[in-house]
Write a structure and sequence with these properties.
This protein is of the alpha/beta class and about 250 residues long. Helix content is about 40%, strand content about 15%. It has one domain: TIM Barrel. An 8-stranded parallel beta sheet has the order 1-2-3-4-5-6-7-8. Strand 3, helix 3 and strand 4 form a beta-alpha-beta unit. The longest helix has 17 residues.
Length: about 250
């Protein structure tokens, strides 16, 4: 069994049929999904654009009941409106927080949102990517995730993409035990999963595909090809994410 901790809706507000077919083929039993804008990704969404994105996720949750969890996407720069939207999403049956590139995760604007994840005992999926040419003002690097984690050690945080620059990203969060990492980074570089397990422990690594934009099958292949024990692989495939959410299923 595989639990995919990092997926997105397509531009039409659905999960692609081909993606769902691959899930069935590879025993992906649950996915955690967000929408970061329709019809395409929106970096600095308005209140209305955020609400439209989250409504699309809830519609897919109803269509794919028993299979799909939903992250609430918010723009921290919207202040109180962002927290209201997060509360509204959780009250409507969604299951976590998704932050993308509108605001660095170490910015105080993020703090009320993380405090509410702690109150509601839900995880936050945090995009982070250290770019070779430097990051845009709101685009977080792994050190932003680490700073947030040290401020809120009781928060359940998942750093997406191994932080982009994966060797740096893994080391950046090594000493923040409340940060897990998902593996959906490059599928053409060997050693990523092994380093994450070596530096963080296998209990802090979860499977994520970033599908359907990225290939679910390639990310499964990366995990299957990693030099891991069977217990380590099972934990990454499903056990760690299920433990993070208290064993709940949709």
């Amino acid at each position: 069994m595989i639990v995919d901790a990092h997926t997105h809706l397509d531009k039409d507000g659905h999960l692609y049929p081909a993606f769902l077919k691959s899930c069935a083929e590879f025993d992906v039993q649950y996915v955690w999904c967000s929408c970061v804008g329709l019809p395409s990704y929106i970096e600095y969404p308005t209140v209305e654009e955020v609400r439209q994105a989250n409504e699309a996720v809830r519609a897919e949750m109803r269509r794919l009941s028993g299979f799909m969890y939903g992250y609430v996407y918010v723009n921290p720069r919207l202040g109180a409106a962002a927290l209201d939207e997060f509360k509204r999403g959780l009250d409507a049956g969604m299951h976590g927080l998704k932050l993308w590139v509108a605001c660095r995760h170490s910015d105080p604007l993020v703090f009320p949102l993380i405090e509410y994840t702690i109150e509601r005992k839900v995880p936050a999926l945090l995009h982070a990517w250290r770019k070779a040419g430097g990051n845009e003002p709101g685009h977080s690097v792994p050190l932003d995730v680490a700073e947030l984690a040290r401020r809120y050690p009781e928060a359940k945080l998942i750093m997406a993409h191994l932080g982009g620059d994966w060797e740096h990203g893994i080391k950046a969060v090594r000493d923040t035990p409340n940060v897990l990492v998902d593996i959906c980074m490059s599928v053409v570089e060997a050693g990523q999963v092994e380093m994450a397990v070596r530096e963080l422990g296998h209990e802090r690594v979860v499977f994520g595909s970033d599908g359907p934009a990225n290939d679910l099958r390639a990310n499964i292949g990366k995990l299957q090809g990693a030099y891991l024990s069977s217990d380590e692989r099972r934990a990454i495939e499903s056990g760690n994410m299920l433990r993070l959410v208290g064993g709940k299923t949709p």
